[in-house]
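Final report, Chapter 2: Outcomes

The project's central promise was a pipeline that accepts a single protein chain and returns its three-dimensional structure in a standardized token representation, suitable for archiving and comparison. That pipeline is now operational. To close this chapter, we reproduce one record exactly as it appears in the project archive, with the input sequence first and the structure output second.
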Amino acid sequence: MSAVQNQQITSNNETFTESTYNGFKIIIRDFDGYINASNVVKQINDREHTNKQIKTLFKSVQYKDFENKLRIVLLGKIL
């Protein structure tokens, strides 16, 4: 298992946590735990040479489970 490395970023008076998880760069808004999923899907499409759509990803049970686990790993909480 690789170590999780977090970096704090401030932009437009908001703070974000930038990290990596399973080789993906993840950006989470600290205030509410919002994950920039568009960026994650773009990375998946680039890596797998696919054209997955966000709207179908969000509906899957697997995504919701992944999202909760990711928040626990990176922020230590479920929102």
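Archive annotation: The first strand starts at residue 7 and ends at 11.
This record, like all others produced under the grant, will remain available to the consortium after the project formally closes.
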